[in-house]
């Protein structure tokens, strides 16, 4: 990533074009508004966006095309990391999200009970954020480790789809549950980022939105994972740092969306 930024700066200097610094999480949210027949930004704001990827899991209230409020975020692993680490323990390979999603289709979601992790209720706020809108997945990973220790997978691996489905369900129910808590008057819910491609998550969020009477937005599949189009789209909309000051920017992996 650092090399990529340096290369972009060099190209900018050669072409005489300004470099534009873009907030990566905002770009994921903007992916909703590119592609064929996208919604009109002003017509869906304010809305709640679940940003869920390999490195990020957070809930954001998009109040306008230019104003974002961070509502909650993961306190440890991102959902994508939980998929990757779980897939590794199950011997399914990397990236873990697609591997678990595929095999889980033939499994039972109630085969094993894994925790739907929550922060301690007596802690009302975490880092200034509402605890009910924050996530934790490290305990889930540990639960799978102990489950596999106590229930070794058989030689024919017949139970593997159901273990994967049960583990996936714990992640999905956690994400959907926080979305339920976040909807406080807004009528539109969105999911963006690579993990939003997960078929079980899409189905569960769509069902929740339908029963709650919400409008539900998803990026087109090709724009869910990290991609240049979302970055260019956000830059084209004027949401970035441009000009000479952009040349002083460096990569900031922990930059907040707000």
- In angstroms, what separates the terminal alpha carbons? 22 Å
- Judged by helices, strands and strand pairing, the structural class is alpha/beta
Q: Write down how many β-strands occur, each being a DSSP E stretch of 2 or more residues.
A: 7
How do the helices and strands follow one another from N- to C-terminus? HHHEEEHHEEHHEHEH
Low confidence ranges: 1-19
Can you summarize the main beta sheet? 5 strands, mixed
Describe this structure in words.
Helix content is about 40%, strand content about 15%. The chain has helices at about 1-15, 25-30, 40-45, 80-90, 95-105, 140-150, 160-180, 200-210, 230-235; strands spanning about 45-50, 55-65, 65-75, 125, 130, 190, 215-220. Mean pLDDT is about 85; it is low at about 1-20. Helix 8 links the parallel strand 6 (about 190) and strand 7 (about 215-220). The chain has a 5-stranded mixed β-sheet, with helices on both faces. It is globular.
How does the SSE layout of this entry go?
Blueprint: H1 2-15, H2 24-30, H3 41-44, E1 47-52, E2 57-64, E3 67-73, H4 79-89, H5 96-104, E4 125-126, E5 129-130, H6 138-150, H7 160-182, E6 188-192, H8 199-212, E7 215-218, H9 228-236
Parallel strand pairs: 1-6, 6-7
Antiparallel strand pairs: 1-2, 2-3, 4-5
Helix pairs in contact: 2-9, 4-5, 4-6, 4-7, 5-7, 7-8
């Amino acid at each position: 990533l650092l090399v990529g930024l340096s290369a972009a700066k060099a190209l900018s200097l050669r072409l005489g074009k300004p470099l534009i610094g873009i907030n990566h999480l905002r770009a994921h949210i903007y992916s909703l508004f590119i592609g064929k027949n996208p919604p009109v930004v002003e017509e869906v704001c304010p809305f709640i966006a679940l940003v869920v990827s390999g490195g990020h899991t957070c809930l954001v209230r998009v109040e306008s095309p230019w104003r974002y409020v961070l509502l909650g975020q993961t306190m440890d692993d991102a959902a994508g990391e939980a998929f990757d680490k779980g897939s590794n323990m199950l011997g399914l390979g990397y990236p873990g999200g697609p591997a678990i999603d595929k095999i889980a289709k033939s499994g039972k979601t109630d085969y094993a009970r894994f925790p739907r992790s929550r922060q301690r209720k007596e802690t009302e706020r975490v880092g200034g954020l509402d605890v009910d809108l924050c996530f934790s997945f490290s305990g889930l990973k540990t639960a799978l480790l102990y489950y596999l220790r106590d229930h070794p997978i058989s030689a024919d691996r017949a139970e593997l789809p159901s273990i994967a489905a049960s583990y996936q369900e714990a992640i999905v129910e956690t994400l959907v549950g926080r979305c339920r808590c976040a909807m406080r008057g807004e009528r539109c819910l969105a999911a963006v980022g690579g993990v939003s491609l997960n078929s079980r998550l899409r189905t569960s969020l769509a069902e929740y939105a339908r029963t709650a009477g919400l409008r539900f937005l998803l990026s087109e599949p090709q724009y869910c994972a990290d991609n240049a189009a979302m970055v260019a789209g956000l830059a084209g909309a004027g949401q970035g740092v441009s000009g000479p000051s952009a040349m002083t920017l460096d990569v900031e992996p922990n930059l907040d969306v707000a």
